[in-house]
Structure formats: C-alpha cells, structure tokens
Amino acid sequence: MSAGKIARNYATALCQVAIERQELEEVKGDMVMIATLLDQNPELHQALASPIVQKEKKKAILDAIIKDSVQHLTYTFLSLLIRSTRIVLLRETTHELIRLYKEHHGIIPVTFSTAAPVADDIRNRIVQRLSEDLNATVELIERVDERLIGGCLIQVGDRRYDGTLRARLDKIDRQFNINIYKKTF
Fold it and tell me: Mean pLDDT score of the chain, rounded to an integer?
C-alpha cells in the first residue's frame, strides 16, 4: 500500500472519531498547528521519521513539544502513530485530515492564477461567482505567475479553466505549425 493511501486511511479514521466525539474543530486546529510546526522545523520531521530514533525518544520529543497544547484525542492518535511506526507519515496525515475537514464542511479549494495581483472587489466577485457555480464555500488560493501574460487560470480539483493569454498564444502557435498543404495520400 502506498504511503499516501496509508496516511489517508489514518486521517479518515481520526476524522470519523473526531466527528463522533464532536471534536473535529479542535482536532483540525491541532493538525494545522502540527503541520505548521513540521513545515517550520524540518529537523523535527527528520527526527520523527528516522528509523534510528527509538519510539520512546520520539514520544518524549512529542511530549515535550505538544502534549499540553493538543486535544487528548490528537495526542492519543500521535501515540498510535508512534507505536505502529507510522509517525513517518505525520506530515501527510495532517494534510489529509485538513483536506477531509474541508470536504466535511463543503469547502472547496480553488487555485486562481493571474499575471498580476487582482483588486479586492474583483477577488470578492470571483469568490462569490465560484461559490454560486460550485454550490459550496470556496477557499481561494491566489497565485501570481507573470508567464501567463494576461487573463486567469482557475483550477478546481481535476478541472482546469484556462482563460490566459499564454494559452491562446500557444493555441495559435500550434495552428501555425500544422501544414494544411501536406499531401496525405
């Protein structure tokens, strides 16, 4: 089984238990804090992922850093990951739980790329329109990519809507490269 699938299974189990106990908000907050901690401290992630560091030492590290600042359910879950030698998947599991939280609350992340930053009123209209079209709450992830030249690129999950000038120029370039006078018989 792939690491991503294992992390997804652990996150799904934690999410279900958190929903049953009505602690999903708190557990999600813990996971955001842990994900930030791991991203800001690569040494911590390396120590937890290292097969050389003993389980007891990993538990002591987590006790010293986060035991008093997370929910009991979150701490129990982290202890389970250590005991089952799956703590190496902690980063992936935190990101997966955050994704499941958004899915549970109907929040859809939308990547919105433009060549230049957009004004607040335009951003608000885009979020409103996307929320109406998708019938969900939209989390807008803005990216500025000068290579787009103009227009915008919107990505929702697997779907991509490319209204950029770069895409139009590439399409015209491909059309010019087609030789309509070539004999095909």
Answer: 91
